[in-house]
Design brief:
CATH architecture of the largest domain: Orthogonal Bundle
Oligomer: single chain
Strand order of the largest sheet: 2-1-3-4-5
Mean pLDDT: 80
Largest sheet: 5 strands, parallel
Strand content: 5-15%
Number of strands: 5
Shape: globular
Structural class: alpha/beta
Order of helices and strands: EHEHEHEHEHHHHHHH
Helix content: 55-70%
């Protein structure tokens, strides 16, 4: 199919690459044009295949994800692919640098493959050619207002489904945190230094109280919430029977889902 999305996968975990290849090849709109197990191989594939999208790991042998991004940015004659970068907690500095280098999306390890598929679809929809005359003109202010209202409604709905009581302070802290991270993913790299203080300022509280309030609310959800709902929302990212997510994991996973939904919509 001529309209298939050409994808390059770059990750030094060969087992994961095989799993990802099998999943993506089963999607009729995707075409895997290359798999690389180190950064130099990835760069050669990107140059030769000119993919529409690259699934890129942050840490790889020979040349890391940032090094590949730098080469893409410097290679101005080449069509720039969309970049989905795999990231993990503990890599906040690299995440911040990747944002500066123009990453299109981050996906937190481990992740549900269906979430990845949705991310790819949302990004490739942006690449489709739609002329301005085909789109009803809406002012930027109105678009932003509608988006913010819809996001607030969706976040509130999910919070209720998870089972976090609306009367606890952590409920409001989490809802605010998710909306902030959806708007600015770099806040995940500075949860303690930036995100908590921003929330504390809005609610006239203190950062340590925000942290405790969020932790308490998550605990309530895990102790009293609906297990099936939690499984549906968090998928394979967390084994809800064995572990409770940290504040950062909880916020990141929910914000990630809302970013995908907002892109698709």
């Amino acid at each position: 199919m001529n309209n298939q999305v050409k994808i390059v996968v770059a990750d030094d975990n060969q087992s994961f690459c095989k799993l990802l290849q099998k999943f993506l090849q089963a999607q009729e709109d995707f075409q895997i044009v290359g798999i690389a197990y180190n950064g130099l191989e990835a760069w050669e594939l990107i140059k030769s295949q000119e993919p529409d999208l690259v699934i890129l790991d942050q840490i790889m042998p020979n040349l890391d994800g940032l090094g590949i991004l730098e080469r893409i940015n410097n290679h101005t004659t080449m069509k720039r692919p969309k970049i989905i970068m795999q990231t993990a907690f503990g890599q906040e500095f690299l995440t911040h640098e990747a944002i500066l280098h123009g990453v299109d999306y981050f996906i937190l390890k481990p992740f549900d493959l269906e979430v990845l598929r949705n991310r790819i679809c949302s990004l490739t929809q942006e690449m489709s050619s739609v002329t301005a005359t085909q789109i009803p003109k809406t002012s930027p202010a109105a678009m932003t207002q509608n988006r913010d209202v819809n996001l607030n409604v969706d976040v509130t709905k999910v919070m209720h489904q998870i089972g976090i009581p609306a009367h606890v302070k952590g409920y409001h802290y989490i809802r605010e945190a998710i909306q902030m991270v959806v708007e600015d993913v770099s806040l995940l790299g500075a949860v303690t230094k930036e995100l908590y203080p921003l929330i504390a300022k809005k609610f006239n509280s203190a950062p340590n109280r925000v942290e405790r309030g969020i932790r308490h609310a998550i605990g309530l959800a895990w102790d009293r919430g609906q297990k099936e709902t939690l499984k549906r929302i968090f998928g394979y990212s967390i084994n809800i029977e064995l572990q409770k997510p940290t504040n950062s994991e909880f916020i990141a996973l929910l914000a990630d889902n809302f970013r995908v939904m907002s892109k698709v919509s």
